[in-house]
């Protein structure tokens, strides 16, 4: 049913997105789908990488590690943005088209009041794309 | 490339770090950006801040505001005497420093170092020419051109024509630039335009260029965080990550926030004055507060949209509006005089430049200290803000391209702008004998001048819109800069932090306008110009050192 799953990830917070990674592994095996890990980085030096090229390397290494876990083919897509915080949603929506994904699995936080002014990225992406979006909440406890 | 096993660990050394696009020379440091940051989620709002820089700058700002509001009468004389001491006794430091910045920037254009590309040899620009240039100009001057475009040429013209007058102690009491031009109308025009262009030309942009270029090189080519402390790396080494670096960053936050706040106050005053002039809206405290609230709200919207869709778009809109207003003034004003004036003023600027920028042995103390040193302190205090913002949007440009666009093109734009507005205003005085403009309050001189041109209602309204939008872009880019400094150089810190700073700017401006003390704080912001002159001189050294080690 799905052939390419796009997974936006935050390399700075890998432990936080563990539930998402597990969901992706199961789904990818079930549908025998390729997994495309997408990372967004600023063009300025940041906490994960000091250059966008280093960021790409780390993303690729991360993807290869995940491939060992779930055994499905992987690919990566690095988005370099001058203002990643503000452009994240639009960049991800564009990336869905660019990588040709038919399912997006991404982590999100539980709904909270501030979402009214600053919507969650997952919610924003889901309302602006025609592919299926699976938002994974953090596990309780 | 695919099998970097250390990928999920913090890098222990930068050996494995690939260069940015194309060849560049990264600095080898163990510092991890954000390692001193505090991350938390109070009230469901995520924050990611540099603990010490954020805490100390917040406390210092709070103390300052409380002190100036509570002890206004005691604080104001302290600031005033501090500042007049600085400009009177150390005015030469500002003048000399500014000359160094301009000379270095000019020399770099013509050396092989100009071939170095910001962000690595193969980097491509993030923004197109139109958007990039609009952002440079809107961040660097914007509001000042609206405020001083008419009033400064007119002011210098008056003092120059008045000539030299000596006090009882033999010291000059007049404010004329250089030797003045007593009774010589043509000479007074030439001198006043040269003096104005001098204050809005190469020197301010030289300071911006030095900060912007050094930050850009150390962030994009050397891989250091985008904060002021990074340019001290060639001198302090790893110590920049400790207290010496914290102090530099705190100073930068301080200068940026107070510079912005006081300008927000000035801008609100001019916009309110304009609204009163045009529509008869009472320019009381209520109008000022509503204006600042409105400006802050729009700025918040723009912050949410980010650099690309927020600041860039607004800057472009404003540049088009400003260009239209400029074109209008040129066409309906004394067109021929303005056209010949651009060339004459440019020549006048170059001829008077050596004398005007001379740091020592000046006889026109009132002018060189009261105007020039004041301006230089002002531009330099602003330079961390403008420089950081310029650096952030300039990746992918070569050093030569950067310097020509930050130094020469804005200077030419200033020449044209000042000539158009200044010549029109002076011509109104000379040919039509209109003295109303000269007599009007500073914030109203632009509107008074426009009144004697056709379509007053429309042009004055455009003028008000320009003032307001320039302030939105300043508040917006200022929040980005302060947020990035207080987040230890991270540009991807959570969005609520930017919102926080924009709100603080608005709240501070309101508090200071209502409680008084805006002038005292402006003086305080200006006093940061002195330490920053030294910071910028270090920046000069850092640029040379940094560029020499880059492949070109």
UniProtKB/TrEMBL annotation, chain A:
<feature type="domain" description="UspA">
    <location>
        <begin position="1"/>
        <end position="137"/>
    </location>
</feature>
<dbReference type="InterPro" id="IPR014729">
    <property type="entry name" value="Rossmann-like_a/b/a_fold"/>
</dbReference>
<dbReference type="InterPro" id="IPR006016">
    <property type="entry name" value="UspA"/>
</dbReference>
<dbReference type="Pfam" id="PF00582">
    <property type="entry name" value="Usp"/>
</dbReference>
<protein>
    <submittedName>
        <fullName>Nucleotide-binding universal stress UspA family protein</fullName>
    </submittedName>
</protein>
From TrEMBL, chain B:
<feature type="region of interest" description="Disordered">
    <location>
        <begin position="1"/>
        <end position="21"/>
    </location>
</feature>
<comment type="similarity">
    <text>Belongs to the BCCT transporter (TC 2.A.15) family.</text>
</comment>
<feature type="transmembrane region" description="Helical">
    <location>
        <begin position="524"/>
        <end position="544"/>
    </location>
</feature>
<dbReference type="InterPro" id="IPR000060">
    <property type="entry name" value="BCCT_transptr"/>
</dbReference>
<keyword id="KW-0472">Membrane</keyword>
<dbReference type="GO" id="GO:0022857">
    <property type="term" value="F:transmembrane transporter activity"/>
</dbReference>
<keyword id="KW-1133">Transmembrane helix</keyword>
<protein>
    <submittedName>
        <fullName>BCCT family betaine/carnitine transporter</fullName>
    </submittedName>
</protein>
<keyword id="KW-1003">Cell membrane</keyword>
<feature type="transmembrane region" description="Helical">
    <location>
        <begin position="241"/>
        <end position="266"/>
    </location>
</feature>
<feature type="transmembrane region" description="Helical">
    <location>
        <begin position="127"/>
        <end position="148"/>
    </location>
</feature>
<feature type="transmembrane region" description="Helical">
    <location>
        <begin position="92"/>
        <end position="115"/>
    </location>
</feature>
<keyword id="KW-0813">Transport</keyword>
<dbReference type="Pfam" id="PF02028">
    <property type="entry name" value="BCCT"/>
</dbReference>
<feature type="transmembrane region" description="Helical">
    <location>
        <begin position="373"/>
        <end position="390"/>
    </location>
</feature>
<feature type="transmembrane region" description="Helical">
    <location>
        <begin position="286"/>
        <end position="307"/>
    </location>
</feature>
<feature type="transmembrane region" description="Helical">
    <location>
        <begin position="499"/>
        <end position="518"/>
    </location>
</feature>
<feature type="transmembrane region" description="Helical">
    <location>
        <begin position="452"/>
        <end position="472"/>
    </location>
</feature>
<keyword id="KW-0812">Transmembrane</keyword>
<feature type="transmembrane region" description="Helical">
    <location>
        <begin position="319"/>
        <end position="343"/>
    </location>
</feature>
<dbReference type="GO" id="GO:0005886">
    <property type="term" value="C:plasma membrane"/>
</dbReference>
<feature type="transmembrane region" description="Helical">
    <location>
        <begin position="202"/>
        <end position="220"/>
    </location>
</feature>
């Amino acid at each position: 049913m799905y052939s390419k799953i796009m997974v936006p990830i935050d390399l700075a917070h890998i432990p936080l997105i563990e539930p998402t990674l597990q969901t992706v592994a199961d789904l990818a095996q079930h549908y025998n789908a390729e997994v495309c890990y997408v990372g967004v980085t600023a063009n300025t030096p940041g906490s994960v990488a000091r250059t966008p090229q280093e960021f790409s390397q780390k993303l690729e290494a991360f993807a290869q590690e995940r491939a060992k876990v779930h055994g499905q083919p992987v690919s990566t897509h690095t988005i370099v943005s001058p203002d990643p915080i503000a452009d994240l949603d639009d960049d991800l929506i564009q990336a869905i088209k660019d990588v040709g994904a038919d399912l997006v699995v991404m982590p999100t936080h539980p709904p909270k009041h501030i979402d009214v002014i600053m919507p969650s990225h997952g919610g924003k992406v889901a309302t602006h794309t025609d592919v299926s979006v699976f938002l994974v909440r953090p596990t309780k406890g | 490339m695919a099998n970097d096993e250390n990928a999920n660990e913090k890098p222990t050394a930068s050996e494995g770090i690939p260069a940015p696009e194309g060849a560049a020379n990264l600095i080898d440091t163990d510092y991890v950006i954000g390692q001193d940051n505090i991350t938390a989620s109070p009230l469901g709002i995520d924050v990611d801040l540099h603990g010490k820089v954020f805490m100390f700058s917040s406390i210092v700002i709070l103390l300052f505001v409380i002190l100036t509001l509570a002890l206004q009468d005691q604080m104001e004389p302290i600031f005033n005497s501090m500042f007049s001491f600085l400009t009177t006794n150390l005015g030469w430091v500002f003048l000399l420093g500014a000359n160094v910045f301009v000379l270095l920037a000019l020399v770099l254009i013509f050396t092989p170092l100009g071939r170095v590309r910001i962000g690595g040899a193969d980097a491509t620009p993030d923004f197109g020419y139109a958007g990039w240039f609009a952002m440079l100009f809107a961040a660097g001057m914007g509001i000042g051109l609206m405020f001083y475009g008419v009033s400064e040429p007119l002011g210098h013209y008056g003092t120059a024509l008045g000539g030299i007058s000596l006090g009882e102690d033999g010291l000059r009491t007049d404010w004329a630039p250089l030797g003045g031009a007593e009774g010589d109308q043509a000479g007074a025009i030439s001198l006043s335009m040269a003096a104005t262009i001098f204050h809005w030309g190469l020197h301010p942009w030289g300071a911006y260029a030095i900060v912007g270029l050094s930050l850009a090189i150390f962030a994009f080519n050397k891989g250091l965080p985008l904060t002021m402390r990074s340019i001290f790396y060639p001198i302090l080494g790893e110590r920049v990550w400790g207290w010496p670096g914290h102090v530099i960053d705190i100073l930068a936050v301080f200068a940026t926030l107070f510079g912005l706040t006081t300008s927000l106050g000035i801008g609100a005053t001019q916009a309110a004055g304009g609204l009163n002039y045009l529509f008869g809206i009472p320019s009381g405290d209520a109008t000022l507060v509503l204006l600042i609230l409105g400006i802050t709200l729009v700025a918040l919207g723009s912050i949410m949209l980010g650099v690309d869709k927020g600041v860039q778009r607004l800057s472009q809109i404003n540049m088009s509006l400003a260009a239209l207003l400029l074109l209008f003034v040129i066409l309906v004003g004394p067109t021929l005089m303005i056209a010949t004036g651009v060339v004459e003023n440019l020549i006048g600027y170059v001829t008077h430049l050596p004398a005007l920028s001379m740091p020592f042995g000046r006889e026109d103390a009132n002018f060189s200290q009261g105007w020039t040193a004041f301006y230089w302190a002002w531009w330099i205090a602003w330079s961390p803000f403008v420089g950081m913002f310029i650096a952030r949007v300039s990746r992918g440009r070569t050093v030569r391209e950067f310097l020509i666009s930050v130094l020469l093109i804005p200077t030419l734009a200033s020449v044209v702008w000042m000539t158009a507005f200044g010549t029109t205003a002076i011509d109104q005085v000379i040919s039509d004998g209109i003295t109303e403009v000269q007599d009007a309050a500073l914030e109203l001189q632009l509107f008074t001048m426009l009144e004697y041109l056709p379509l007053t209602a429309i042009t004055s309204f455009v003028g008000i819109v320009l003032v307001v939008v320039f302030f939105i872009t300043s508040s917006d880019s200022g929040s980005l800069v302060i947020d990035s400094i207080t987040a230890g150089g991270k540009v991807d810190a959570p969005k609520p932090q930017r919102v926080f700073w924009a709100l603080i700017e608005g709240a501070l401006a309101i508090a200071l306008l209502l409680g008084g003390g805006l002038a005292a704080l402006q003086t305080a912001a200006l006093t940061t110009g002195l330490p920053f002159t030294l910071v910028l001189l270090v920046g000069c050294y850092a640029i040379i050192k940094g560029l020499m080690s880059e492949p070109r």
